[in-house]
Design goal:
The structure is a single chain. Helix 2 (81-94) runs parallel beside helix 3. It is elongated, with a radius of gyration of 25 Å. The protein has 139 residues and is of the alpha/beta class. The mean pLDDT is 78. The protein contains three helices and five strands, in the order H-E-E-E-H-E-H-E. The protein has helices at 16-37, 81-94, 110-122; strands at residues 62-66, 72-74, 77-79, 99-104, 127-130. It has a domain at 36-130: Nucleotidyltransferase, domain 5 (2-Layer Sandwich), CATH 3.30.420.270.
Length: 139
Amino acid sequence: MRFHTPAPQSAGFQLAPMIDIVFLLLIFFLVQWRHTQDETEIEISIPTAEEGTPSVQAISEIIINVSSEGEIRVAGTTLNHEQLKQKLTNIARVHKNQPVRIRGDKDTDLQIIVQVLDTCSKAGIWNVSFATKAPAQDQ
């Protein structure tokens, strides 16, 4: 007796998993792009520093932008010192090691930067860094 065995068929190219991965990558890059927009939401010329290490922005890091006129902006919202303190206090209650980066314009009065730093301290935020850029290399 002879049995008829069908010829093996190729598995083919599975398109659905590849589409899933492409969409996940697209979502990842869109989220990262939106997150970096907070840092450059207003035109700030940050000061230069020869020393320092390049830092990677943490996902939960709060960026406090201080313009040359003394305007304080966090995530697209203009705040005064009391509103900033309230916002940071609420965050510090939930996240004990909340990182904060202060982006002060190089023409901002130092007193305003010190007041923002003092506000962070009063709110219970101790993990504070300052945004600087490396000096331009003469070529």
